[in-house]
Structures are given as structure tokens and as C-alpha cells.
Amino acid sequence: MAEDHGDMKKLFKAMQILIFYQCQYHLTHVTSDSYDEKTVKSVLAQLFGKTG
């Protein structure tokens, strides 16, 4: 159960980071494109300790 709580905290942190990246991207780019998939995977890998 404690492990589930830890995963939820990591997921929440990942969401905060990705929202921050999205906001920064839209502030610096005129197009409506979203942040790239590589950035998303990188952030999630760092938080959850997974590679690849």
C-alpha cells in the first residue's frame, strides 16, 4: 500500500513537470504543437528510474 502511495506521488510530480514544460514550450513557440514525446519519456524515466 505504501508503494502505491509513492507511485502516486511520483505520478503527480511527473504531471507537474510536464505541465511546466508544456507552458514553457508555448511561451517560446508560436505554433500550437505540444512538447515532444522524447521529453515526456525522459521525465517519466527519471522519476520512475526506468531507461529506454
What structural keywords apply?
single chain; 52 residues; mainly alpha; 2 helices; 75% helix; elongated
Explain this structure to me?
The protein has about 50 residues and is mainly alpha-helical. The chain has one domain (about 1-50). Helix content is about 75%, strand content about 0%. It contains two helices and no strands. It has helices at about 1-30, 35-50. Helix 1 (about 1-30) runs antiparallel to helix 2. The longest helix is centred in the first third of the chain and has 27 residues, at about 1-30. It is elongated. The relative contact order is 0.15. The model has no long low-confidence stretch (mean pLDDT about 75).
What layout of secondary structure does this protein have?
Layout: H1 2-28, H2 37-48
Helix pairs in contact: 1-2
Q: Nutshell version of this structure?
A:
This protein has helices at residues 2-28, 37-48.
Portion in strands: under 5%
Number of β-strand runs: 0
Overall spatial form: elongated
Share of helix among residues? over 70%
Figure out the total of helices.
2
